[in-house]
Amino acid sequence: QVQLYESGGGLVQAGGSLRLSCAASGRTFSTYAMGWFRQAPGKEREFVAAISWSGGSTYYAGSVKGRFTISRDTSQNTVWLQMNSLNPEDTAVYYCATAKVNYGEGPYTTRTQYAYWGQGTQVTVSS
Questions:
Q1: Cα 126 from chain centroid?
Q2: 96-117 as b/e: b if 16+ CB within 10 A
Q3: Sheet containing 78-83: which strands, arranged edge to edge?
Q4: Burial class (CB in 10 A: 0-12, 13-18, 19+), 16
Q5: How far, in Å, CA of 34 to CA of 86, rounded?
Q6: Would you give per-residue pLDDT tens digits along the chain (127 residues)?
Q7: 7: Cβ contacts below 8 Å, ≥ 6 apart
Q8: Cα angle vertex 14, ends 96, 110, to 5°?
């Protein structure tokens, strides 16, 4: 059974940083792209960042580019999202996901490209 578990969320002041982690099990995650999405209250779930199966390519939403960094360690089946210069607009539940197709090419920016999702972790940025 595929499981994704996010952690690292919390409350932070504007300008602060958080590092989210996503631990995966039940699949050979080293051959699948991974992504982070977020959903704010009353809004659609939106793409944040993705990383290719090899780790050689990364993709970011325009709103987070230059502030967030996605990375992975295939030996640990873990993906991270380093979030810097946070602002209140970043407040949301953050979800990690794994792609449907292995060894595929990106950019993996749409929800339909992902097969499995974690339960989410809350990030709240106060002004």
A1: 21
A2: bbbbeeeeeebebbeeebbebb
A3: 3-7, 18-25, 78-83, 68-73
A4: middle
A5: 22
A6: 889 999 999 999 999 999 999 999 887 788 999 999 999 999 999 999 999 999 999 999 999 999 999 999 988 899 999 999 999 999 999 999 999 988 877 789 999 999 999 999 999 999 9
A7: 20, 21, 22, 23, 121
A8: 25
Name residue, tokens 């360690």: 73
DSSP 27-68: S-GGGEEEEEEEE-TTS--EEEEEE-TTSS-EEE-TTTTTTE
How buried is 67 (Cβ within 10 angstroms: 0-12 exposed, 13-18 middle, 19+ buried)? middle
